[in-house]
Specification:
Radius of gyration: 26 Å
Strand content: 15-25%
Bound molecules: adenosine-5'-triphosphate, magnesium ion
Helix content: 25-40%
Order of helices and strands: EHEEHEHEHEEEEEHEHEHHEHEHHHHE
Distance between the termini: 25 Å
Number of domains: 2
CATH superfamily of the largest domain: HUPs
CATH topology of the largest domain: Rossmann fold
Shape: elongated
CATH architecture of the largest domain: 3-Layer(aba) Sandwich
Length: about 400
């Protein structure tokens, strides 16, 4: 039996004259992914995209799973295609539909006919098909008002589509339609979630990770790259810049008061990220900061780190509780990696009493004890890139 996927757009339908651009970007992503799963054709029909396997080797299960992580789609239906006559429809309904009805008690049938020459009208098709369903699943009841599942039959020009129930799509808008931004990716729980949330809003990702070898380990770096790979099914292929802060941290410890270590380190992070972002054409930075979570995430602390960049800083977790962030981390599959206990450069040389209400003038005075620009340039010169490929 031939199966296809019917994908429903989300917000794209509201895009007015830009809609074409959003659709094109979405199709490009789907075509890129489809290549991985075999020979598929992707066509558009009003606010639906049709993904159709072109030979028996095309892996529709793989494509279905991958499609659920494509932003811009709100619903995906698996759908059987058969000939446009009631005998063929009956056979297909009886073979194909019961697998979607397990555990359900009520259903209804909705029929649509774009081919108006078809012998039965929509009401008649729905009644017939309802009968087929009941004859194979006699424990079900028809409920036209509030059914647990809707069996749909569409009579099109070239055949009939039969599907039962829509699976949730990833929502959001297609990756790339909002431009590119640089994610400050640590090994923690929050920053991968922040990246995911911005990708959902159409951001194409680039990432930077700061390490402090040998105070942080190879394992800590590997953990971050694993997190990046876990984001790739949503984000697509992207680059992770690895920057060493070892020398900066050693200079900090030698020259500055302990209470200011974290704040000045974070100012370096923002300054370095700002430069990488601008060089790579990113229009914003993204961090996993959440208000009040730690000393460096108070309003005043954010106030002294923010001025190190002129770019907008997206902080999608800013108003979220840890538990809410954890829920998303679990959903997207980064949580288990994030809780592996490796150190981060923020957790080495941490002050016992970090300033929670720092004054900008005092932080600047501390920072003047270092050759800020030279240290930034040195860190940038030593940076290298790891490419994360989306193997969908
Ligand atoms: P996370 O769970 O994302 O690590 P956190 O609660 O541990 O967050 P911090 O360590 O204060 O918070 O970091 C706040 C944000 O700064 C992170 O979400 C991330 O965006 C950025 N950041 C922290 N450490 C690094 C790092 N080593 N490399 C890149 N970005 C970092
Ligand atoms: Mg962290």
């Amino acid at each position: 039996m031939k199966e296809i996927l019917l994908c429903k757009y989300g917000e794209i339908v509201l895009k007015g004259s830009n809609r074409r651009y959003f659709e094109d970007t979405l199709c490009k992503t789907l075509r890129y992914r489809a290549k991985h799963f075999g020979n598929f054709e992707i066509t558009r029909s009003q606010s639906t995209l049709i993904i159709e396997p072109k030979d028996e080797y095309a892996d529709i299960d793989g494509m279905f799973e991958s499609t659920q992580k494509v932003f811009g789609l709100v619903g995906i239906s698996r759908c059987a295609v058969c000939e446009k006559n009631m005998a063929s429809i009956e056979r297909t309904v009886k073979d194909y539909v019961p697998q979607f009805l397990a555990g359900k008690k009520t259903f209804k049938v909705v029929a649509k006919r774009s081919d108006k020459r078809f012998v039965l009208d929509s009401m008649q098709i729905a009644a017939e098909v309802g009968g087929y369903v009941l004859s194979t699943c006699p424990y079900l009841h028809v409920d036209v008002r509030d059914p647990e599942i809707v069996v749909q039959v569409e009579i099109r020009e070239f055949g009939a589509y039969i599907h039962a129930g829509q699976f949730k799509g990833a929502g959001g808008i297609p990756v790339g339609t909002s431009g590119k931004a640089l994610l400050l990716l640590s090994g923690g729980i929050d920053s991968p979630v922040a990246g995911y949330m911005m990708v959902k809003r159409g951001i194409q990702l680039e990432a930077v990770h700061f390490e402090s070898f040998p105070y942080t380990s190879e394992m800590a770096r590997e953990k971050v790259l694993t997190l990046a790979r876990e984001l790739a099914p949503y984000a697509g292929t992207f680059a992770v810049h690895i920057v060493s802060l070892t020398h900066i941290q050693e200079e900090l410890v030698k020259n500055c008061e302990e209470d200011y270590f974290t704040l000045i380190l974070r100012r370096y992070m923002m300054a370095i990220a700002d430069k990488i972002a601008k060089k790579k054409g990113c229009g914003a930075l993204i961090t996993g900061e959440s208000l009040g979570q730690v000393a460096s995430q108070t309003m005043q602390a954010l106030g002294v780190t923010n001025p190190m960049t002129t770019l907008p800083v997206f902080r999608p977790c800013i108003g979220m509780d840890k538990e809410e962030i954890v829920q998303i981390a679990r959903k997207i599959g980064t949580f288990e990696t994030s809780i592996q206990p490796y150190e981060d450069c923020c957790t080495v040389f941490t002050p016992k009493h970090p300033k929670t209400k720092p004054e900008l003038a005092k932080v600047e005075e501390q920072q003047r004890r270092l050759d800020f620009d030279a240290l930034v340039e040195e860190a940038l010169a030593g940076a290298y890139v790891e490419y994360i490929r989306a193997e969908v």
